[in-house]
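User: For a reading group we're discussing how well predicted structures match intuition. Take Aldo/keto reductase. Before you show the prediction, I'll give you the sequence so everyone sees exactly what went in.
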Amino acid sequence: MQYVQLGRSGLKVSRLCLGAMSYGSPQAKAWILGEEEGRPIIQHALEHGINFFDTADMYSSGESERVLGRALRDFARREEVVVATKAYYPTGPGPNDRGLSRKHLFDAIDASLKRLGMDYVDLYQIHRWDDEVPLEETLEALNDIVRSGKVRYIGASSMYAWQFQRALMTSERHGWARFVSMQNHYNLAYREDEREMLPLCRFEGVGVMPWSPLARGFLARSRSEAMTVRATHDAFGQSLYYSEDDYCVVDAVTTLASARGRPQAQVALAWLLRQPGVTAPIVGATRMSHLEQAIEALSLTLTADECAQLEAPYRPHSVLGHE
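Assistant: Thanks. Here is the predicted 3D structure of Aldo/keto reductase, as structure tokens, for the group to look at:
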């Protein structure tokens, strides 16, 4: 396994981050694995050197955090792993059970720590931007949570580059803890962040942890292959991909994967790992083979011509994934 610094922070993370959205309650989503099915995959990731794990308080209504926390306690020492979670989306019916207010963030971190069974999380991320809360309130609350020892670093997720720059500048002006990472929507089928967000992150020394690196599995199967259970039940994924332009990108991945004798998932992930500034894509795995293919992608080096072949079919999109 390769290890890199998360942006300009001193935090060392594996080149792949295992996303835990897939582990929790099958009642939440048809494709989510129950605890007994998910634990072996988490254990396998640890055995292959992955030390970086990402979850969120809203995944399976908190069950993802519980499953991940129990597995890490059983299979690793706390100081060996880097645990990331997120807050923003509703976690209850009340008006303060959501968003980035001081009240909700203070309540949310305590609830996440309890579910994880941990004293602190390494990376605490705002899951989206909140227009209803003053930015200074959110950033000061995050700074206070860091100072309390409950969080080591803070990160952000999908938003516009101007919003992220404003947040970074506000933190610097006040001497508050600064975002060290950006978890954004980025893959071969959606590359809009190449315009502003990725150059901003490189300039500011912010680590990039793309979510949906395989476009929720869309890039991992050819145009003619049957849809998976997840794809069939994933309305959000259907809203992001599946246009004819997107399928042209898939065709390019299929062609190169066939020529290389590699699975499509490896080719698509190898391309992403090659992009400047990308630290650790967040990979999902509901089968052991998914995880093994992701790990093997680390050893796949694409040429500049092969990358150009994969990139050629792309057509601009509207901004997607900020909801």
